[in-house]
Write a structure and sequence with these properties.
Elements: H1 3-8, H2 12-28, H3 37-49, E1 53-58, E2 62-69, E3 74-80, E4 99-101, E5 107-109, H4 116-128, E6 139-146, H5 154-160, H6 163-166, E7 172-182, E8 186-188, E9 191-194, E10 196-205, E11 209-210, H7 223-230, H8 232-237, E12 244-253, E13 259-260, E14 263-272, H9 275-295, E15 303-310, E16 313-315, H10 317-331, E17 335-337, H11 349-354, E18 358-366, H12 368-377, H13 380-383, H14 399-415
Helix pairs in contact: 2-4, 2-14, 4-14, 7-9, 10-14
Length: 425
């Protein structure tokens, strides 16, 4: 079943060096969400150079390329483009030293701390191969480069800007993500793979006063009590077999040690895998916040805002099975069943808009020897940098080769079923 993919991948040696150079360039020169103008141009130019029809500026910086080779299935592969506001500490010769100006006018370091540079480079590498081997496949291949995944609004921006009218409707949508697994690893999982994520901002209101006169104040630093109580939602309201995460990532109150402020702001993040658990946890958070504020005599109710939201990523059974079978045939022992991840994505909004099934898989990016040593020592959590950390840096190879091959094998699991004669190959 992988013969067409193997035929197309004979061209991998001819694109490898260019893809590696592109990856290092993208890692060094990068942009935050909805500002990915340079990255988007790189993707659009690369697609045009190998004969793809390109549409730019969808949802601001989104790009789609379409390569048609007769009648057959339509397959869409998606890569996200944006970086993160993190100062890189990898020590790489191509490490990012760039900064951007944030909404407050402050200079903010940026880094590809989540591996989106890998995703873009791999999809461009994959896109260059089928144009030269049209005898091995039939149908339509759509490459989609999405902005602003980290903010959770990039897929929505492309959809709101008419994505479904600007692209052929796919029969299946494919995507991958690099994770801190050994490079060379590929992992598929049917059903729930990535969690839903909800970020909340809670504003607790008080009455300010001099720090020496608490009797004249209502101290909103009761937010500290909210933080402690929220830790009981997962540990005391959910079954031990029900996965969920509640993390308080930011607490801000006051401007000096002798001033009781008039408000405190708490920002938190919730990860769940199903709608029932998601509803239960969010309701529990609201109940706890309101009860603590009432117990502390807050002069008015708290404000609870949902500032970001990601849907769960639930892979469709049939396309996941097809890709898993193709990966097993091509990658052999490096093909695995992936564990559920508590990270989150907005990618599933795209197939949902088209009414198309999808599957989303993982590839590894950690030096295999380094990972094996950490595993032997029982120190993987301590020694292997994870996504969003300042030390996250996928090794160039075999990460890129694996990512290009995975996209190609998965796409050809549909497109490669049609030889030039129109008969299954």
């Amino acid at each position: 079943m992988t013969r067409p993919a193997r035929t197309v991948l004979t061209g991998l040696d001819t694109v490898r060096a260019d893809v590696e150079d592109l990856y290092r360039d993208l890692h060094r020169h990068l942009e935050l969400g909805l500002r990915e103008h340079r990255t988007a141009k790189k993707a659009a130019d690369a697609l045009r150079e190998c004969g793809w029809e390109v549409t730019e500026g969808i949802g601001g910086t989104g790009v789609i390329g379409v390569l048609t080779n007769g009648d057959g299935p339509v397959v869409m592969a998606r890569a996200d483009m944006d970086a993160l506001p993190v100062r890189e500490r990898t020590g790489l010769p191509y490490a990012s030293t760039e900064t951007v100006t944030d909404e407050n006018g402050d200079e903010q370091p940026v880094m590809h701390a989540c591996g989106h540079d890998v995703h873009v480079a791999c999809l461009i590498g994959c896109a260059r191969l089928p144009a030269g081997r049209r005898d091995a496949w039939r149908g339509t291949f759509v490459a989609l480069f999405q902005p602003s995944e980290e903010q959770g609004n990039g897929a929505e921006a492309m959809i709101d800007d008419g994505l479904t009218a600007k692209s052929p409707r796919p029969d299946v949508v494919l995507a991958q993500h690099v994770l801190p697994c050994p490079a060379g690893y590929v992992g598929t999982r049917a059903g729930s793979f990535l969690s839903a994520a909800d970020s909340l901002r809670v504003t607790v209101h008080g009455r300010g006063a001099h720090g020496s006169m608490p009797q004249a104040a209502v101290d909103p630093v009761v937010a500290a009590m909210i933080v402690v109580r929220l830790q009981t939602v997962v540990s005391r309201e959910l079954a031990a077999t029900t996965p969920a995460v509640v993390t308080v990532g930011s607490v801000h109150a006051g401007s000096g040690p002798n001033v009781i402020p008039d408000r405190a702001v708490v920002e938190l993040n919730v990860r769940t895998y199903d709608d029932a658990t998601r509803t239960h946890v969010l309701d529990a958070i609201e109940r706890i916040v309101r009860a603590e504020c009432e117990a502390s005599r807050s002069p008015r109710p708290p404000e609870i805002e949902r500032i970001a939201s990601f849907p769960p990523t639930v892979n469709d059974e049939e396309p996941t099975r097809r890709v898993a079978d193709a990966f097993a045939a091509y990658f052999g022992d490096d093909a695995h069943t992936a564990e559920p991840q508590t990270a989150s994505e907005d990618m599933s909004e795209i197939p949902r808009a088209f009414g198309a099934p999808f599957t989303y898989w993982a590839i590894g990016g950690t030096d295999p020897e380094r990972y094996a040593e950490a595993a032997r020592n029982g120190t993987v959590a301590e020694d292997i940098p994870v996504n969003h950390s300042a030390g996250f840096a996928p090794v160039v190879q075999p990460t890129l080769d694996t990512g290009i091959a995975a996209l190609t094998v998965a796409a050809l699991a549909w497109l490669g079923g049609w030889a030039a004669s129109g008969l299954p190959s």
